[in-house]
Amino acid sequence: MNKEKNTGITSGSGKPGRIKYYQVILIILLSLAVYSNTLNNDFNYDDNSTIVKNSFIRDVRNIPLFFTGPLKSAGASEVLKTAYRPLVMTSFALNYKLGGLDVAGYHTVNILFHTACAVLVYVLIIMLYGAEAPLKKTLPEEGDVFLPAFFISLLFAVHPVNTEAVNYIWQRSVILAAFFYLLAVIFFIKCLSGAKPGWLLFSVAAYILALMSKENAITLPLVLMLADWYFISDFRKSSILKNLRKYHSPFILVTLLYLIVRVFAQGVFKEFHSPDRAGMFSYLITQFRVFIEYLKLIIFPEGLSIYHCFPLSKSVVDLRVIGAFCIIALVILFSIKISRTSKKVSFFILWFFIILIPTSTVLPLQIIMNEHRLYLPGLGLLAAAVMLLFKWAPAGFRRNVLPVFLAVIVIMFSMLTLKRNAEWKDGITLWSEVLKVNADLVVPLNNRGIAYMKQGIIDRAIVDFDRVIRINPGYA
Q: CA-CA distances (angstroms) from residue 220 to 184, 252, 257, 357, 430?
């Protein structure tokens, strides 16, 4: 069977698909430019407990400890006692070895990996479009296949919602997991498109590294099955069942082993739960509303904050829950309806929902909503939106107006990202932005008080702590 003909994916046999290197260079330069003003931003929030006060990263001989499980030793913060992210901890140890607590070194690593992710997005989109040498060959119904990939990658690189993942050094876990996740998808598609079977080993290895970076990488087997169903098996049950045994089984096995180690040997997932604050049902129906907030932040990134005060929903008859559920259902139904005529659009819409499963379904986490959770899932919405524009826009608009329109959005997003980066300067500026929206939030007041105290501004710290006590006398 000629897979290239049926799937439209770049074949691994013969010459590899080419890319436009000037576009890659522009992606890299813009990624570096929009985060150039973050290098001197301070350690913020959990950075203090996971990096500044973390004695374990100060000796590279501790690196093997990071791989044996979460740090249960005395002196480890609560975050370190529950999170199993050995690659992230190893990277911090190497950062400390090279530059101590020079914050610029930590930011540099985050920026470089974010830039690498943007380039991998470009490569992945081109693979899915099936852009094969010679470069001038295009898909007539969608025009230049490189322009969608270019703009999707640029929007991912500069989107303001990603500023939390890049600025918040502890959330390097999100970026590292995304980097290896994207690699795993690229290697998997390359293998199933006719390349040597060795690419499957690279894909499995990348999956393991993604799991060692952050837990949400556990969704990868589902995404790979979806990619197979859409682009490789072309909706043929016999084909995907065959591939399930031959290609997907290693990922399923790795997932099972990971779950066994995490749940039974370490019991870590239970420690992530906050059942006294949110039961599974209450958390789930609240997440319907969170999904809508995530959609809004991707389309219109206004009101970005490190702390979203999101009240829990208690009943399914809540009109906000019903409305959110209906919107989500309509989006998913739309994705299914266009799955055969607009495969890539449908795939990336479902990508968004699948990757959010670990944080936005039935496992109650202490924080209801976080922007860094959108880092990889948000790519799905960006890709789907741009692909829809290139596919459905009239030819003249697509050729003459659409690139200018998207370029303007890239410039606007870049400016918003530079502005948001400045708000991450230190704990005072970061938490003050949150308090501009609601001046009586206890956690931001407490954290700003700590930031004032850290900088020796004791009178301001006392004001914030006194306000916390007046709002909530029992707040420790």
A: 8, 10, 15, 11, 33
Residues 247 and 154: their CA atoms lie apart, in Å, by 32
Residue 122 to residue 116: CA distance in whole angstroms: 10
Check the CA dihedral 394-398-399-405 and report its sign.
Answer: positive
pLDDT at 299: 93
Give 54-97 pLDDT, tens digit per residue. Answer: 989 999 999 998 888 777 665 667 787 778 899 999 999 999 99
| Number of other CB atoms surrounding residue 263 within 10 Å | 12
The answer to whether residue 12 scores a pLDDT higher than 70 is no
What is the DSSP secondary-structure string of 420-446?
HHHHTSSHHHHHHHHHHH-TT-HHHHH
| pTM, rounded to two decimals | 0.90
Please, is 341 exposed, middle or buried when counting C-beta atoms within 10 Å of its C-beta (0-12, 13-18, 19+)? exposed
Of the given ranges (29-33, 44-48, 276-280), which has the lowest mean pLDDT? 276-280
Rg (CA), the chain: 23
Per DSSP, 194 falls in state T
d(CA 93, CA 412): 36
SS3 assignment, position 190: helix
Left if phi > 0, otherwise alpha if psi is -120 to 50, otherwise beta: which for 199? alpha
Helical spans, DSSP H, in 197-318: 198-211, 220-227, 237-243, 249-259, 268-272, 280-299
Beta partners for residue 273, in sequence order: 365
Decide: 214 and 359 in contact? Cβ < 8 Å: no
Apex CA 157: angle with CA 152 and CA 158, to 5°?
105
Band the pLDDT of 151: cuts 50, 70, 90: very high
| 155 three-state secondary structure | helix
